[in-house]
Amino acid sequence: MSDFDRIDEVVAHGLCVMCGTxxxxxxxxxxxxxxxxxxxxxxxxxxxxxxxxxxxxxxxVNFPELYSRLFDDTSGLQTLTxxxxxxxxxxxxxxxxxxxxxxxxxxTQLLAYxxxxxxxxxxxxxxxxxxxxxxxxxxxxxxxxxxxxxxQSRYTIVPVNQVLNQVSKIEGKIALVGMPCHIQGxxxxxxxxxxxxxxxYITIGLFCELNIEKEATxxxxxxxxxxxxEIEKFQYRAGDWPGHVKxxxxxxxxxxxxxxxxxxxxxxxLKCIYFVERCLSCIDLGSELxxxxxxxxxxxxxxxxxxxxxxxxxxxxxxxxxxxxEVIKNAINDxxxxxxxxxxxxxxxxxxxxxxxxxxxxxxxMKFLKKxxxxxxxxxxxxSSIVGVRCLKWELYRVCAWVRKIPFxxxxxxxxxFSVLGITFIKFKTRLxxxxxxxxxxxxxx
Length: 446
Known about the structure:
Blueprint: H1 7-12, H2 21-25, E1 31-33, E2 39-41, H3 51-55, H4 63-71, E3 86-92, H5 95-100, H6 106-116, E4 122-128, E5 136-141, H7 144-147, H8 164-167, E6 174-178, H9 180-192, H10 194-199, E7 200-206, H11 215-223, E8 231-238, E9 244-249, E10 254-256, H12 263-274, E11 292-296, E12 315-319, H13 322-333, E13 337-340, H14 344-371, H15 392-403, H16 407-417, H17 420-436
Parallel strand pairs: 4-6, 6-7, 7-11
Antiparallel strand pairs: 1-2, 3-12, 3-13, 4-5, 8-9, 9-10, 11-12
């Protein structure tokens, strides 16, 4: 039995991941979202059916059970990578898709390929809000040309799964792209709604180390004194890989918001202040329950430099299920994807470090919450067998969780971070990181 009767209780205990699954499964559309994307219940419409609690990944995800159903194997639970069949680096062979994407354009290319082959009739993706381009919203697209508007990464909370209630009304199969929490919610929803299980053909999961509140984007815009009403277009990954945060104004001009070497430097600062606190308890970096997992190919060579250099990007692709394997095989054979195989230790070098930090941080935080007598998510397996009992990153975020509540501190930190001092610190940190990620075996030059 659940500890909760309604989804608003999950929110009240700080366990909501804002994935939107509860709204997407509600038969009476009784769940709506507030300005921070937390679900609220219209008690006059709610029938107390309990579906919202059954599908919520915020307080409970039975990983062993879901692993058994997806892979018929739970051994991946004791690893940092999760279960997988294959891993390689890839890019979209359509140049326009690759250049318009954040990384190598693999996600957009796969969706375009599936739509063209009529394997799916539509795809659930995230795109910019047309009225407010700096904000993001979920969208169901049915045509290739619609995908172009949704091909950029969106670094903010989006309740993607709220569109699940549209799925049963759409002809054909569905492809769904989401973060780990979205995929977890979808898998739970598919177990209680068999029609949904029949509809969703494939899930493509993105990597997520820690999500940030949408206020972070607004603060960046305010920092550069850009009027919101003048913004025509907003991208987190504009220009050559890895890209920069950039806005296009209605007067035809454009402005780059930050001046670091790549987007992860910007995100690292924003995560210190604008992180979503529930994300600190998440154990899933690489969307372990997806059919296919995709990320940028942040791979360093033996010198600690980026292996995939150039104006266009590459993606890391992890194939996890038989469905994912079949789709990838066909896409490669039909020339939709170009691939390059590297030793797994190179591909997983950065991944395992991040996954280890994330699982350790989650384990540390859940131990802290338990000690305080507070609610924490249940993943139904012992994390201590694969992670340590202490995580310095958790201690840092615990301090930040308290400090960031002071408005003046938030104001001060964001301005120092994006000043000359902040840029200098990042350059120093980058040098240290290059040394840390150096590999002993020399990869062949591209």
